[in-house]
Specification:
single chain; binds ligand DLZ; alpha/beta; 4-stranded parallel beta sheet; 154 residues
Length: 154
């Protein structure tokens, strides 16, 4: 039997972080979590590219451009869709999730999901460095692990 364990060593990996400007008071904190999470796991600062998009609805298109460029081993998608402030909550959140998954499956490049979908700003802040941790950091770890796994399996 062969077993491939989770490998969180990011040394030498090139990562693109796509981040939404909408709800920037949350996404800046998620971005900080993602950047420090990559750095702590060995990804070099010169190997990290940050690409800003208007809102979560635009995140999937940019993740696909990054994935198709051949310049990145993994992509991290960051956004914050907050129900109380969003008329089209289900639409934006659903399209973002579906588009990000589609990018990953169709290009083969792992895209980690760091888009929060919350009822209130408080819930979002809680998950962006508050009591519930930082989902940007979790997305960074997932991106590294999937890039390493792809190198083993693909
Ligand atoms: C328009 C909109 C609304 C109402 N709410 C959010 C949100 O909670 N989170 C988010 O990331 N983006 C939101 N947007 C912006 C859309 O994602 C998109 O940028 C615009 O509709 C322009 O296409």
């Amino acid at each position: 039997m062969k077993e491939i364990g989770a490998d969180s060593d990011g040394e030498g990996l090139r990562v693109c972080i796509v981040v939404a400007q909408w709800n920037a008071f949350v996404t800046h904190k998620l971005l900080d979590g993602a950047k420090s999470g990559l750095g702590e796991r060995g990804v070099g600062a010169d190997d990290i590219t940050v690409a800003w998009v208007p809102g979560s609805f635009e995140v999937p298109a940019a993740t696909r451009w990054a994935a198709e460029s051949g310049r990145f081993d993994a992509v991290i998608a960051i956004g914050a869709v907050i129900k109380g402030e969003t008329d089209h909550y289900e639409h934006i959140a659903g399209q973002a999730a579906a588009g990000i998954m589609e990018t990953s499956q169709e290009t083969g490049v792992p895209v980690a999901f760091g888009v929060l979908t919350c009822d209130t700003p408080e819930q979002a802040l809680d998950r962006a460095g508050g009591g519930q941790g930082n989902k940007g950091d979790e997305a960074a770890e997932a991106a590294i692990q999937m890039a390493r796994l792809r190198a083993q399996l693909a």
